[in-house]
Amino acid sequence: MAADLSEYQATQKMNAGFWKLVGIPARGAELHKALREGVPYVVYKQLVSVAGLEHQELARYLVIPPATLRRRAKAGKFKVEESDRLYRFAEVLKAAIDLFEGDRERAVHWLSNPVRGLGDRRPVDMLATSAEVEAVLDLIGRLEHGVFA
């Protein structure tokens, strides 16, 4: 039982570190409030950095047109729907990094290439809707547990 508790605490610490790094609360009321109020533009810049992507590349994955991205940079925060998409990307990125045991480069490579378990679609092309994100997270969960069917 003690081993389970220490493993859980270590996982929670690692999770908190990722969310703190990108600037989004990990869960709960703080997360809900941040998404409703609109996450700061700096979160976008942090996600670009953590994922090792180009600014416009992440915008494409999040379905945010370049002009809109410029307006959000000027305003300093995103609207609710855009904030939710940023959170969904962060959630998928975190899960992929965990799948590859902390190797961000391999995680981003996996996210950027067609995956058989997703009908040969790229996970980054499945971020626009919550149903698609759920499918990606479900596949990652199955891969972590060795369930390939």
From TrEMBL:
InterPro entries: Antitox_Xre, Xre-like_HTH, Xre/MbcA/ParS-like_toxin-bd
Coiled coil: none
Residue intervals of the Antitoxin Xre-like helix-turn-helix domain: 30-90
Pfam (any one): Xre_MbcA_ParS_C
Highest rank taxon of the organism: Bacteria
Domain Antitoxin Xre/MbcA/ParS-like toxin-binding, first and last residues per copy: 95-146
Protein name: DUF2384 domain-containing protein
Annotated organism of origin: Alloalcanivorax gelatiniphagus
